[in-house]
Design goal:
The structure is a homodimer. Chain A has 12 helices and 11 strands. The first copy, chain A, has about 350 residues and is α+β, with helices and mostly antiparallel strands. Chain A has 2 domains: about 35-160, PurM-like, N-terminal domain (60s Ribosomal Protein L30, Chain: A), CATH 3.30.1330; about 165-339, Alpha-Beta Complex (Phosphoribosyl-aminoimidazole Synthetase, Chain A, domain 2).
C-alpha cells in the first residue's frame, strides 16, 4: 500500500531516537550516585533520600497534541494531559505523586493562555492529590509563534505500592487492559498529518464516524489511572503496571517483562474505539504500525495473578474505567506477541 | 536617549509576566497539600516526604542563550548552564542536589546534538555530585527549526543547610557578592538584539574590547556556587543566599529580605566585567535597566553576619571564586536600594 502513512513520513524517526538513547544511557550512567535506585529506561527515575525512603521522579511533555490545542484555541486541557501522563508513569513504578512542577515556554507571554494552561495543571494536580509547587514560565522571543508554547512537567512521588515497582511477575499472570480515554498524548504528528494535511479537515469539522468535532476527539485529556487502581494496588493485587505511551503496547509492555517470559496480547480481546478505527482506515497504515503509534484503546496494562483478576476488574470498573482481559504471560524471551 | 534598547523592545514583557504570575499564584494555592512547605515565589519548591524530611525541587530553562548555541553550532555547554542554574536555585533554599532530569524538545532528533546536550548535563551533574536519573527527548515536528531545540531541567535536593532556608537575617548583616562567570543565563534576548541585529556582529567575530569571540563570551557556562560555598555553609556562617537571575540584583535579593529591612547595595563596590560595560555602552540603556536585565558580575549574594565576613570571603576565594562586600542590611521595608 504505497500511500499508507507511516510515523517516519510524519516526521518522527523512532530509529534515530533509539540510537541516541543508547549513547545517552552511557552518559547518564557516569553520573550515578548512591542516591540512584533505578535503571535507565524505567517509567520513572527512582532515588533515595538520605533516610532510605525511595522517591520516584518523572518528566514528560505533551508533544504535538499542543498544536491541536493551538488550532482549537483551547488551552485548559493540555495541563491535564501532562499531569496525568506523569502520574501514570510513576504509578507504574509503584509511586503516588507528591509534587509537580511545570515548564511553559512561549514566544511572548499571553497571560490568558498561560493562566488557562496552569488552570488545567492545577485541576489535575488537585484530582491526583498532588501539589503544584512551582514552575518556570519562560518568554523566548523567536522560539515560538504567536499564541504557541511548549509545555513540560516534572513529578516527584513516593513509593506507596512497592510490589508494583518490584515486578515479580510469573508465568500465567493475566494481562488486564484498562481503557484509555482516547489518543492520550501519543501519535499526534501522525494524526495531524493525516487529518489536517491529507484529509483537509479543520478542528471544527466533525470527526469521521462520530458526532464530535475533530477538536473534541483530539483534545480529550489523557486519563489518570491512580484513582481507578487505588483499591487494587492498596490490597496488593497487582504485580506490575505498564503505561502505554509512545511505542504503544509492544513498546511499553516489554518494560515489565523478565528475560524468560513473553506477553501474549490477543487483539481480538477488545474493540479499539471509533477514533482508532477511523485513523487506521483513513491512513491505510498496517496494524503493526498502528499498534506502535497509538494506544489503540488501552492506556494501562496491569499484570495480575489469575486468582485476583475478577476482583481487580470489578474494583477498576467500580471507579468508572472499563477493563479487558488481553492475554497472559507465557515462557519466552521478554517479548510482546500481538496475536 | 531615544535609541536606547530596553528589554521590552527586545521582546520580553516583564510586566505581563508579573500579572500572569499573580493569577497563577492563586491557582497554585488551590493545589496545596500537607506535603508542601514553601511559599509561591521561592527559589525552589520545598516539600516533605511522609517521614518529615524536607526536599526542594526546582525547574528551569536555558532561555534564548540556546539561540547563541545554535548560531555557534556548540551544544555541550548549555547543559552545564541548566544544571548549575538549578543547583544554585535550590542552594538558595539550603538544599544540596540529589537528582536531575532533563526535557529536550526538538523538531527532528539529531543524535549528535542531543548527545552533546546530554554530555553537558552529565558533566555538570557529576561536578555537583548529583545523579542524572532520567529525561524526556521529545521529537516535535513543526515546533523547532532544523538543529534547534528547547531544553528544561528539574532538580530535586535535600535540605543540607537548614539555616539558609530559614533566612534569619538581621540588621547590620553584610551582603557578600560572589562573582558571576559572565552573563549566566539571563538577558540573552537583549544581547542578541543588540549584538546581532543592531551591531551586525556574528558569533565568530571578536567581542568588543576583548580578545575572545562573541560565541566564547556569550556561551561561558553559568557557574555553580555549591563548591565555593560548601565550607562556609557547612560551618553555618551564611544566613541567606540570593541567586541573581532574571530581574538582576533588585529582582532577586528582595526575596530574602524580611518586611522591616532594606538591602543597600553600593554599585561602586565592584567593577562589572568588560562584557557588561560593553553591553551598557553599546545599548545606551540606563543603569537601572542594566541592573534588572543582567547580573552585572554578581551571580550570588550571601547574607553574612559581620563577624563572619572575612572568613566566608576567604573560604569562597580559596575555592576560586572572587567576592565583593556590596553593602549591608538596614532598617527599611523589604526593598533593595542600589546606591
Amino acid at each position: 500500500m504505497t500511500d499508507a502513512l507511516t510515523y517516519r513520513e510524519a516526521g518522527v524517526d523512532l530509529e534515530a531516537a533509539r540510537r541516541a538513547k543508547a549513547r545517552i544511557a552511557e552518559l547518564v550512567e557516569c553520573t550515578r550516585t548512591g542516591a540512584v535506585a533505578s535503571r535507565f529506561g524505567s517509567f520513572g527515575g527512582r532515588f533515595r533520600a538520605a533516610d532510605g525512603r525511595d522517591l520516584v521522579a518523572s518528566v514528560d511533555g505533551v508533544g504535538t497534541k499542543l498544536k491541536v490545542a493551538f488550532l482549537a484555541g483551547r488551552h485548559d486541557t493540555v495541563g491535564i494531559d501532562l499531569v496525568n501522563h506523569c502520574v501514570n508513569d510513576i504509578l507504574a513504578e509503584g509511586a503516588r505523586p507528591l509534587v509537580f512542577m511545570d515548564y511553559v515556554a512561549c514566544g511572548t507571554l499571553d497571560p490568558d493562555i498561560v493562566t488557562a494552561v496552569v488552570a488545567g495543571l492545577a485541576r489535575a494536580c488537585r484530582d491526583n492529590g498532588c501539589a503544584l509547587i512551582g514552575g518556570e514560565t519562560a518568554e523566548m522571543p523567536d522560539f515560538y509563534g504567536v499564541g504557541e508554547y511548549d509545555l513540560a512537567g516534572f513529578v516527584v512521588g513516593e513509593i506507596a505500592y512497592p510490589a508494583v515497582g518490584e515486578r515479580r511477575v510469573e508465568e500465567g499472570d493475566v494481562l488486564l487492559g484498562l481503557a484509555s480515554s482516547g489518543l492520550h498524548t501519543n501519535g499526534y504528528s501522525f494524526v495531524r498529518r493525516l487529518l489536517f494535511d491529507r484529509l483537509g479537515l479543520e478542528v471544527t469539522d466533525r470527526f469521521p464516524d462520530t458526532d464530535r468535532t475533530v477538536a473534541e476527539v483530539l483534545l480529550t485529556p489523557h486519563r489518570s489511572y491512580l484513582a481507578p487502581l487505588e483499591s487494587s494496588l492498596s490490597a496488593g493485587r497487582v504485580r506490575a503496571l505498564a503505561h502505554i505511551t509512545g511505542g504503544g503496547i509492544p513498546g511499553n509492555l516489554d518494560r515489565v517483562l523478565p528475560a524468560d517470559l513473553d506477553a501474549v496480547v490477543r487483539t481480538a480481546a477488545w474493540t479499539p474505539p471509533v477514533e482508532f478505527r477511523v485513523l487506521g482506515r483513513e491512513s491505510g497504515a498496517p496494524g503493526d504500525e498502528l499498534f506502535r503509534v497509538f494506544n489503540m484503546g488501552i492506556g494501562m496494562i496491569a499484570v495480575v495473578p489469575p486468582g485476583e483478576v475478577e476482583r481487580v476488574a470489578s474494583e477498576v470498573s467500580a471507579a468508572g474505567c472499563e477493563t479487558f482481559v488481553l492475554g497472559e504471560l507465557v515462557p519466552g524471551s521478554g517479548g510482546v506477541r500481538l496475536e
